[in-house]
Fold this protein.
Amino acid sequence: MTSVTMADSSKPSLLTQLREKSEALRAEGEAARRPLEDAIRDIDHVLWRAFRWLDEAIGHLAVIRPRVGHTFHLGTLMALERPRFDRGFVSFRRKPIVSLEVLEHVELFYRLDGEQPITLRVPPMQAAAVEERLRGSTMPYEYQTEQDERRVVRFGVFRVKPQIAASVRLEPDYREQTIDIALRNVDRFESLHLAFQPHALDEAALEQLVKFMMGETSTFLRLAPFKLLRGVRNEAPMSPAAAFGRR
C-alpha cells in the first residue's frame, strides 16, 4: 500500500512565520527608538529655545553697546581692558538624524571693541612669536619693521586694532544626550568647553551666560563641568572679517 504524506494544515506556513517574526522585531525596534527620538526632540527644543532667546538678547546688546567687565591679556605684551560690545548675530545649522530634522548647532558671534589702536614694538627675533599670539587672538594688525640710520632693523612694529571676535557655540551630542558649549575669547584669549545636561540649559542658565559674556559674574562656569577634549581638530582663527563680513 502506498502512503502519502499530507501537509499539516494546522501549522502556519513558512511565509506566515517569517511575517510574524519580522513584525515582532519591527515593533521591538520602534519601541526602542521611541525614547531616543523623544530625547532628540527634547534636545532640539532646548536648542531652538536658546536660539530665540540669544537672538533677542544680542539684538538688545547691539543697541545698548555696554562695556564688558573683562580684561584680555596677550601674555605680557598688552592688556585690553573693558572693551565695548559692538555687535553680534546668532546662526544655526540643521541636519537629519534618525527620521528627524534637528539642529546641528547654534552659534553666537559677537565683537568687542577697544578705545584706541595699540602699538607694540618688539625686537626682531620676537616678531614671529608675537605674530603667532596676535593671530590666535583674532585681533587685526599690521606689521612693519623699524630701521636705524644704517638701515639695520631694530624693532618689529605691530599696529593692532583692539577688536576681539568672540563666539559661543552650542553643539548637541544626541547620542550621549548632552550639549557642549564652547566659549571662545569670551573672557580671555582661549577656548573653554562645558558639558551641559539639556534640562540644565534653561532661561536662568542663558541669563548667566550673557552676564558672563558681559563680565558681570562667572556663575555660568559653575553650572556644568568642564569638558576634556581629546583629538580636537585644529581650527583656523576666526577673524572679524570672516565673522562679520555679511553684516
Q: What stands out?
A: The mean pLDDT is 86.
